[in-house]
Design goal:
The chain has 101 residues and is mainly alpha-helical. 50% of the residues lie in helices and 11% in strands. The protein is elongated.
Length: 101
């Protein structure tokens, strides 16, 4: 991982997610049909480490998640590297103000 943004993305990538249609109780039937047509709701999806989204029938979620622990462990070492490279104020600013994309 080369920069702080890579570290941040590594926190939530890869991930498995599911958005039930029940989260949108006030959506019109047309909207609900659109959500299902574009696979927004009621689908088990995998956000890969590359940022691509795949669905369960196209990949094995367990395989996608196997390296997550290694990536998170590596983040600790990378953070120490950034801490050594940046001034204390800069490093603390990044930790306190960088949000997820």
């Amino acid at each position: 991982m080369e920069n702080i943004l890579d570290l941040i993305m590594g926190l939530y990538r890869p991930s498995i997610f599911y958005i039930p249609s029940s989260l949108f109780p006030n959506a019109s039937e047309k909207a609900k049909e659109g959500f299902k047509e574009f696979r927004v709701t009621d689908e088990l999806a995998v956000l890969k480490i590359t940022g691509d989204i795949s669905y369960v029938e196209n990949c094995i979620p367990t395989i996608e998640l196997l390296n997550k622990q290694n990536n998170l462990d590596n983040n600790i070492f990378q953070l120490h590297k950034f801490q050594d490279q940046l001034k204390k104020d800069s490093f603390e600013f990044i930790l306190n103000n960088v949000s997820f994309p």
